[in-house]
Amino acid sequence: MKLSLIAPLLLVLSLPALAAENDADRSSQVPRLRTELAAGYYARGQYGVALQEVDKALAADSSYAPAYYVQGLVYMDLQEFDTADKSFRRAVSLDPTEPNANHNYGWFLCNKRKAYKESIPYFLAALKNPLYNTPEKSQQQAGLCALKAGDTAAAATYLRQADRAQPDNPQTLYGLALLSYQRGDFEAARNMLSRQARLGQGGAEELWLNLRVENKLGNTDNVAGFGKELKTRFPDSEEARLLAAGQFD
């Protein structure tokens, strides 16, 4: 009789422990789930709700790094750059190996702070993580930002890596075209821009580079054609202003 009661008794005794364990498991998922919700709201442009979800994630775990870099993205889009910088820094300090946090902070530094040289180490930190799913993004951005920093040798290395990893990416091709232009290889620049044009219609930046390349090659008809398209599609752009002023270089 006693033996027959042991199993039911153990089951009863284990129920509170099991319930506590389940509660702990659910509690540990809160930061991740709230951060995922925040990222979804951010992607839809619902910044206020995104920040509320970030706050809930951090209330559950104030050391959850992904919540900080989503917070940084929201504040970046809100043009609150100082606050965004603090959020990104907090994210990478909590988890220096997290590739998305490093990539996003590097992108922010390069494209919003114009801290081109300072952005590169964060892209390289992202690339060091063997579990990073999209290394070509960081290779590309490292190349583009190195180009802006004037380091053409590093730019060539990173952009070629990105092109091998993901051929026919428009941004990578633009970077390679600009690199060739800066090196005086205008035919190579034209070839890269031709590859890019097959992928879709470019913006003002791409049209301006096409125009400058054709100008260097002495193709006046092509210069006129790109100039007309630039003024028609992007009349208020900085590139259209430079064209009107004749400032090709």
TrEMBL record:
<dbReference type="InterPro" id="IPR013360">
    <property type="entry name" value="Pilus_4_PilW"/>
</dbReference>
<dbReference type="InterPro" id="IPR019734">
    <property type="entry name" value="TPR_rpt"/>
</dbReference>
<keyword id="KW-0802">TPR repeat</keyword>
<feature type="signal peptide">
    <location>
        <begin position="1"/>
        <end position="19"/>
    </location>
</feature>
<dbReference type="InterPro" id="IPR011990">
    <property type="entry name" value="TPR-like_helical_dom_sf"/>
</dbReference>
<keyword id="KW-0732">Signal</keyword>
<protein>
    <submittedName>
        <fullName>Type IV pilus assembly protein PilF</fullName>
    </submittedName>
</protein>
<dbReference type="Pfam" id="PF14559">
    <property type="entry name" value="TPR_19"/>
</dbReference>
<feature type="repeat" description="TPR">
    <location>
        <begin position="65"/>
        <end position="98"/>
    </location>
</feature>
<dbReference type="Pfam" id="PF13181">
    <property type="entry name" value="TPR_8"/>
</dbReference>
